[in-house]
From TrEMBL:
<keyword id="KW-0808">Transferase</keyword>
<dbReference type="InterPro" id="IPR050832">
    <property type="entry name" value="Bact_Acetyltransf"/>
</dbReference>
<protein>
    <submittedName>
        <fullName>GNAT family N-acetyltransferase</fullName>
    </submittedName>
</protein>
<dbReference type="InterPro" id="IPR000182">
    <property type="entry name" value="GNAT_dom"/>
</dbReference>
<dbReference type="GO" id="GO:0016747">
    <property type="term" value="F:acyltransferase activity, transferring groups other than amino-acyl groups"/>
</dbReference>
<keyword id="KW-0012">Acyltransferase</keyword>
<feature type="domain" description="N-acetyltransferase">
    <location>
        <begin position="21"/>
        <end position="167"/>
    </location>
</feature>
<dbReference type="InterPro" id="IPR016181">
    <property type="entry name" value="Acyl_CoA_acyltransferase"/>
</dbReference>
<dbReference type="Pfam" id="PF00583">
    <property type="entry name" value="Acetyltransf_1"/>
</dbReference>
């Protein structure tokens, strides 16, 4: 595998590229789990360029491209949350899964967490996203609790909140 690095998303052009990437990944991965209607709604509400620009400008989110060499393979979004780091998004395009990119992204997040002196990472994951849950568990995360969040449009996010304590 080529070198993996994380490029902070800042410009409108980067955000447009990120929105296209999010739409591709969400339509490929989540339609079988939550259905096309909810994917369309969530991409527009949370993963569109205007939504991501708002999250970065007003809500403290930091988006990063996951690059393998010069190629973008996925993305992650992080937010400092009091005394812990929230991994809001971590997505890799299908052809590049199983190559350690998610592990490297989680290690990257853990490094940022430690730099801030935080002792905990947390994230949400759909309860039916079994493969992803297993990956997080192998990386030291545990299911802290369940959460059903009404996100509008008649949709609910039915998630586990998973946490990882840092030594």
């Amino acid at each position: 595998m080529s070198d993996v690095n994380f490029e902070r998303v800042c410009s409108p052009e980067q955000t447009a590229l990120l929105g296209d990437l999010a739409k591709r990944i969400w339509n490929e991965h989540f339609v079988p789990i939550i259905g096309q209607a909810q994917v369309d709604y969530m991409v527009e509400k949370f993963q569109s360029p205007p939504a991501m620009r708002r999250q970065m400008a007003q809500e403290g989110y930091q988006y990063y491209f996951i690059r393998e060499g010069e190629q973008v393979r996925g993305y992650t979004a992080l937010r400092m949350d009091d005394d812990r780091l929230f991994i809001s998004k971590l997505y890799v395009e299908k052809p590049y899964r199983g190559r350690g990119l998610s592990r490297k992204a989680l290690n990257f997040a853990e490094g940022l967490c430690r730099e801030k002196g935080f002792r905990k990472l947390w994230l949400t994951v759909n309860r039916h996203n079994e493969r992803t849950i297993a990956i997080y568990e192998r990386m030291g995360f545990y299911k802290a609790r369940e959460q059903a969040a009404d996100i509008g449009g008649g949709f609910v996010m039915d998630d586990y909140i998973m946490e990882k304590d840092l030594d």
